[in-house]
# Entry
Amino acid sequence: MRLRGRKGIREDIERQKELVVLNAKDYKGKWAELFGNDNPIHAELGMGKGRFISEMSRKYPHINFIGVDMYDELIRKASEKARAAHGLEEGEDGDNLIEISNLRLMLFNIERIEEAFAPGELERVYLNFSDPWPKKKHARRRLTHPGFVEKYQQILNEKGEIHFKTDSVSLFEFSLNSFADMGLRMRNISLNLHSDGFHPDHVMTEYETKFAGQGMPIHRVEVMIGEEALAAHVANLAKPEPEEE
# Structure
């Protein structure tokens, strides 16, 4: 994947030190210190243009969010989405006048994600419309391949979960089998997330808006990684169903 953007992209994102992280390895084990609080940290791996992570950070101010991508141009686009989501405007000199306290955009290659986060540092990983890599020989590049999931298991804490969405039937089938083969518990499996219409509280990505608008089914699953997440799920299943009036 190659992206063409305007000149000066790297200089642009380098100026945004309050929002963009270019030296992610330096913060391994120190992300709570960077955010200045002990709130949960959620990361979207492969955030694209950043609509999802920007809206989530606005909607949930008591959660810290990190959007990760490896392309300068997408980091720049995401910074624009972030400012727009929080009602901020860029200054004439290219600097942001106000910090978005619970959001960081991280320029990093997901293949080495364990180098950016310490064990148990994240509470949730979002995988939204990841590249399906349809050829069998490229299976190891899929972000739900066991090789990647093992990395997520390292960096997620006891409440850790993976939330995965895709429009690709083949990638969804591969992912469900991948999670099952690893003995992971899943919940809220949906083969057509928006079959009953769009829920007002659901934050959508750019791809999701496009594909769902065309009537394409969106597939989604939540995977429980941490022991506390699994225990909470089991306890919830044990609750009696509410009686119908």
